[in-house]
Give the backbone structure.
Amino acid sequence: MIEVQNLSVRVGDTRAVRRVNLSIGAGERLGVVGESGSGKTMLALALMGMVPDGLTVDGVIRIDGNDLSRASETTWAAYRAQKIAMIFQEPMSALNPLRRIGDIVAEPLLVHQGISRNDARQKVLALFDETGIPDANRRLQQYPHQLSGGQRQRVLIALALACDPSLLIADEPTTALDANIALRITDLLVRLSRERQMALLFISHDLSAVSRTTEDLLVMYGGDIVERGKTRHLLASPSHPYTSGLLSARPRIEQNAGPRRLPTIPGTVPSLFDLPPGCRFAGRCDRELPICRATIPQPAATVSGGFASCHLLNQPSQDQTGQAPR
Amino acid sequence: MRRGAIPANLMVGGILVAMVIGVAFISTFWTPYPYAELDIANKFHGPSSAHLLGTDQLGRDVVSQLMAAAGNSMTVAVLAVLIGCSIGTALGLLASAKGGWVEEAIMRLCDLGFAFPALLFAIMLAAALGPSLPNVVIAIAFINIPIFARVARASANQVWTREYVYAARASGLGNLAISRDHILPNIAAPIIVQATIEFAVAILTEAALSYLGLGAQPPSPSWGRMLSEAQTLMYLAPQLAIYPGLCIVTAVLGFGLLGDGLRDITDPRLSRQRRG
Amino acid sequence: MGYFLFRRTSGFILTLLSVSLVVFLVMNILPGDPTLSILGIESTEDARAVLRARLGLDAPLAERYVTWVFHALQGDFGDSYTHGVPVISLIVERLPMTLSLALSGMALTVLLALVLGITAASYHKRPGDWGVMLLSQLGIAVPAFWLSMLLVLLFAVKLRWLPPGGFPGWDDPRAAVRALILPTVALAVVQSAVLARVTRSSALEVMRLDFVRTARASGFSRRRILWGHVLPNALIPIITIVGLQFAGLVTGTIVIENVFYLPGLGRLLFQSISNRDFLTVQALVMMFAAIVVTANFLVDIAYVLIDPRLKARSR
């Protein structure tokens, strides 16, 4: 459905996203995790043809076989919403406050499909039903500020689904929501992907949301994909020190044994303009080798059946990891 | 914007303002010819070495008139803005210091002031008192009072919540002393910015009133009045309708740019918005 | 909503009354005997006393004010001294002129400002933006009456496309429209310079909001996003300034009418000042101030109609 080869997003020579390859087929669900600043939102925007002014996109983006890497803004606009749709982190502000919910969701139908107001209304009601928005008839007349955060995220999903896209990109869709509402939204996304045979790209820093939603997983750091694999296997036996760090930084309810310091990855994501020449995780990594700062690591097979870009994987002597391939 | 770099609007505005004020100052002691000197034999002369911009319908030197008019224009603007700014700032400080019904009353009075556009108020005064430049000063000053009262009150209200003001109050200083020693210096920047902008507005208002015959009376020179005289001669000597207008634009543009530039450098919140 | 309307309306009426008091006081307690200026210095005290009685000037100030307000509420502003007819009939006769000028000026102002402002915002930090900003900086500095003269010089004196002034009346609509073109442009250019800047900065603020990204993700065209999503959300500050500008526009008509010799209220105001027809002046000044106050009042109410969130809060 969508295929990306060697995708980079850069400002001058500074790359926010570096040589990313990925592909998602119909009904498949791919997750991208990473801290903020890891380039995952930029990757999503590149797939929408919506990177901010001043940034350059290199590489190949193929949607349904058509290469869009040289496409004009008009071509992109035609693909958006009809082939690829996106929902965002902040359901509070992502809806036009001056429009009624019904009109917001109907707009792409009226504009892109040219159907009548009445048909659009029926379609909106069906979408509300599908996305679990109760009391649909009354909602049509309401304004965004009259809805709860969870309801607004459902409206955004309904809006994204309006023109039956074959790929839905969800950028941190649950971050701004309460935990139990977040669960329902992720379950909704999984159900929609299955029922509609729709590809889903689920972007989050929240590993539990990702593990619940996706089949395959990319771990991003500093614009690089540092590890990839089947979500379940990858999270069960992480190979890259960054993935391990993310996993141990995750709060666990079952470990609720009195006050405990949450382990965190020391340091912060380096600024794009201040990146180490070798592995971008060098400097924060607790298992750093001399080679790490100098050379960019190449992807190598991992025990979880995926790939990771880490020099540790090529150092059989580092057997305390127990993960290096023989 | 680079730190320490002078923004373009501030620089251009500053140069234009310096030019206008310089010419106005020089005109108080020297102009090429006495501005009111008639020389009917040499009327409607084109530009020449004797008369740089030629002469008007009465043979008066245009450059001399423009220079003297700059003096008039600046005097009116300085006096009007100074008076309006002093009274308005004092009222704003008082409103902020006293609060309660005093603040409410002063601000309602200011609202009332906003019902009268400067030009309308000046027209009303001219109708009641007769047309003259001093009445123009009074009218513009009056209109400026509520403007400065609002700016002063809004800025002062913020300063009153600062710690050093609490400290000053704890040390037993009265409202008046705090307003003078702590509030006023801290609201000077927005007041000065506003004054620069109102200066530009004052020049425009004076020109419009003089054009309408409610400002400078003959033979007192004014850009506005020169334009109203030129209008009747538009077919005969169109060039006379150009120069005074250019002078007005230069002066107003200068103060406007200067005000914008000052605001950019003194109000980091606004300039950050602009950069963003 | 009801309470909100009540509060705003009572405030509006109170402001109107205060304005009338200011107008009355300025026109009546400032030095200068109107009968003296009407009849001249050589007039006899007796003649002036007769005129004073006729104009109702011998009653106490407070009583005269109350009488004036009550009569004005019934549309009676007294008789014009120079024209010998009721002031109200003069106003009614000239109002259409001023109204057509003010409304056409307003329409052109809003049109120019929205197009320029939105264009500038959509070319933010590129030449299109700088060009519009430079143009508006210039537009603000140009006095409307001088711009009028330049327009007349070019289009009436040199090119002879349009009349230099005067108004033929609406009997000949074509000629009437031709006569209104230059005054309308002169009025609108200056006002739209201010409004274009407000539109630009307001649109820039809105363009950063998340829902604009949602609209882009929905595949809408740039134009649809700018005019359909950004502009409505940018309107509140724009409407505030439009309201304030209406004041400038109305006083602008006073000047413009005098430049182009258009027989409207502004021209009447000036003729009345030079004729020392002070009842007419008083009525006209009050009218202009009332228009300004009313415009501000309508702006306050317009907010609520635009933004459903305010409607909820104002209930």
Remarks:
- Chain C has two domains: 2-72, 87-313.
- The radius of gyration of chain C is 24 Å.
- Residues 166 and 262 of chain C are 5 Å apart (CA to CA).
- Chain C has a mean pLDDT of 85.
